[in-house]
TrEMBL record:
<keyword id="KW-0479">Metal-binding</keyword>
<dbReference type="GO" id="GO:0008270">
    <property type="term" value="F:zinc ion binding"/>
</dbReference>
<dbReference type="InterPro" id="IPR016193">
    <property type="entry name" value="Cytidine_deaminase-like"/>
</dbReference>
<keyword id="KW-0378">Hydrolase</keyword>
<feature type="binding site">
    <location>
        <position position="79"/>
    </location>
    <ligand>
        <name>Zn(2+)</name>
    </ligand>
</feature>
<feature type="compositionally biased region" description="Low complexity">
    <location>
        <begin position="189"/>
        <end position="202"/>
    </location>
</feature>
<dbReference type="InterPro" id="IPR028883">
    <property type="entry name" value="tRNA_aden_deaminase"/>
</dbReference>
<keyword id="KW-0862">Zinc</keyword>
<dbReference type="GO" id="GO:0052717">
    <property type="term" value="F:tRNA-specific adenosine-34 deaminase activity"/>
</dbReference>
<comment type="similarity">
    <text>Belongs to the cytidine and deoxycytidylate deaminase family.</text>
</comment>
<feature type="region of interest" description="Disordered">
    <location>
        <begin position="171"/>
        <end position="202"/>
    </location>
</feature>
<feature type="active site" description="Proton donor">
    <location>
        <position position="81"/>
    </location>
</feature>
<feature type="region of interest" description="Disordered">
    <location>
        <begin position="1"/>
        <end position="24"/>
    </location>
</feature>
<protein>
    <recommendedName>
        <fullName>tRNA-specific adenosine deaminase</fullName>
        <ecNumber>3.5.4.33</ecNumber>
    </recommendedName>
</protein>
<feature type="compositionally biased region" description="Basic and acidic residues">
    <location>
        <begin position="8"/>
        <end position="23"/>
    </location>
</feature>
<comment type="subunit">
    <text>Homodimer.</text>
</comment>
<dbReference type="GO" id="GO:0002100">
    <property type="term" value="P:tRNA wobble adenosine to inosine editing"/>
</dbReference>
């Protein structure tokens, strides 16, 4: 993580592996969220992770991290995004997360998209899409609905494949079923198609 910046070795191909100016800057933050996601299955939770970065875009300080803890606490609202937003607000000593970015491995559900807008987050960056319960462009697009007065910027599909992989694996391996409607929800397992995971818990 340290060392000299950009050794000028290749003048012609500075970014050989990528080349997406919109998404590439967010890759490190999404990877951080992925590390969080991988901790969720320890409690039977769907592997979704989130990070809140303070003002400064991709280089903003990490204010909070969280993973799905719905099963861990028996709390239907304990989605990674909500927990991360709460922790960031505690850290800032206020609910307005102005200038902050919510980074999450899976497209937010309706609850989390709503919480994000209420927190006045400036931007939402996510990895895999959730075609069954996503509320940031898939099933709904709450974050860009013109009727809402605060509309964060949305950047989707950052490391989508890598973010979806743990979800696929989780559902493929047979998650502990705790009842009907054990949907993912911030943990949505519906994300990556063909996972066989249940749809959002609603
Ligand atoms: Zn959610």
């Amino acid at each position: 993580m340290r060392g000299t910046n950009h050794p000028p070795a290749h003048d012609t191909a500075p970014e050989p592996a990528h080349g997406d100016p919109l998404r590439d800057p967010w890759v490190p933050a999404v990877r951080r969220a992925l590390v969080e996601a991988l901790a969720a299955p320890a409690t039977g939770d769907v592997p979704v992770g989130a990070v809140v970065l303070g003002p400064g875009g991709p280089r903003g300080p990490v204010l909070a991290t969280a993973h799905n803890e719905r099963e861990a606490h028996g709390d239907p609202t304990a989605h990674a995004e909500v927990l991360a937003l709460r922790r960031a607000a505690e850290r800032l000593d206020g609910w307005r997360l102005t200038g902050c970015t919510l980074v999450v491995t899976l497209e937010p559900c309706a609850m989390c998209a709503g919480a994000t807008a209420l927190a006045r987050v400036e931007r939402v960056v996510y990895g895999a899409v959730d075609p069954k319960a996503g509320a940031a462009g898939s099933v709904w697009d709450l974050l860009r609905d013109r009727r809402v007065n605060h509309r964060p910027e949305v950047i989707s599909g950052v490391l989508a494949g890598e973010c979806g992989e743990p979800l696929s694996r989780f559902f493929r391996s047979g998650r502990p079923a705790t009842g009907p409607g054990t949907g993912p929800g911030s943990g949505a397992g519906s994300a990556v198609a063909s996972t066989g995971g249940s749809p959002d818990g609603s």
